[in-house]
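Format notes (please read before filing issues)

Several people have asked whether sequences and C-alpha cells are stored in separate files. They are not. Every record keeps both together, in the order shown below: the sequence lines, then the C-alpha cell lines. Line labels are part of the format and must not be stripped during preprocessing.
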Amino acid sequence: MNTKEKLDTPTPISPAALLALARQHGLALQPDTFTYNETGLDFQVVQARHENDSHWILRIPRRPDVLPRAENERKVLQFLQDKLPVAVPNWQVYHPQLIAYPRLAGTPVANIDMENMCYIWNLDHEHLPEQFIASLGQALAALHAQDAQAAAQAGVKVHQPEQLRENLRAQMLLVQKEIGVAHSLWQQWQNWLSDDSYWPQHTSLVHGDLQAAHILTNESGIVNGFLDWTEAEISDPAIDFVSMLASFGEDITKRLLQAYEKAGGKVWPRMLEHIWQRHAAYGVTIGLFVLESGTDDYLLMARQALGLEEQA
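Then the structure lines:
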C-alpha cells in the first residue's frame, strides 16, 4: 500500500461509487443490501451481501492519516490468523480506498449510538453472563501470550517495558501544550508515571481498543470474535482492560482479571490500580486524535476528559 496516495473516495461513499469500487476488486455485491455504519472515527463501515449471498464487511478510510495504522493492522491480522480462540478479520481486499473481508459470526456486545454518544447494548451489561467473563479472560490471555519476538518479525509495532512511560509522557506533554490539562489531573499523571510499582515489567500483543462494539459473542454470550485491530501493537497489557473498567465497573474488571489469570494471563500486584490510572489518562487518547485528525469534532470531549470543561 502506498500510504502517501491521496484518498479520493467520498465520505460517506455513495452506493453507486461503493458498488463500482467493490467491482474493481472482484466483489460483486447486492447494492440493496448495503447497511452503513458511521460510528468509526477512522473508517466508514458498510455491511453488504455478495451476489453469492455471503456477507461482507467493507471499510473505507476517512482520512489519509489512517493508512499507516491500517498497514499495521494488516500485519497484526496476518500474524494472528488461527492463533486465538476467537475469530479475527481475514482481509481479502486491502487497498488505500477499500478494505474488505467476510463478516465474522457473532453479535457485538453493543452498538454505538453516535447521536446520543452512548452504547445500545445487545448483551445485558448489568447482568453479564459468567461465560462472557470467562471466555473474554481466556481470549485476552491467549492474545497477550503471543510470541512478541515473532510478532515483531511479522512487522507489528513494538514497545519495550522501559519505553511505555516515556512514550506516554511525550504524548501527555504534546496534549498539554496544544490543548491543555487541568493542574490536578496533570499532577496525578506525573505521580503515576514516577511510581514503578504501578507498571508492568513486560509488554504483550494488545488489541488496543477493546471496547464493547469490538467484541463479538454467540447466542450464549461466549466471546467468539474481536473486531477493529487498528491500535494493536506490543505494549502494556493493561490497555485491553481500560474500556472494560469504564463500561462495566470495578467488580466486573476484578472478575475478568481473575479469569484472565486463571487462563494463564500474567498479572502484577497493582494491575487494577494501574488500569484505573490508564482510565484517568483517557483524555490523552482523545486529545491525540483531535491533533492527528485535524478535526475539532471531538475537541469538547477531549477538553472534558482533560479536566478543562464540565462533563455534560
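For reference, the curators noted about this record: The longest strand covers residues 29-37. Residues 108-305 form a domain with the Aminoglycoside 3'-phosphotransferase; Chain: A, domain 2 fold (CATH 3.90.1200.10).
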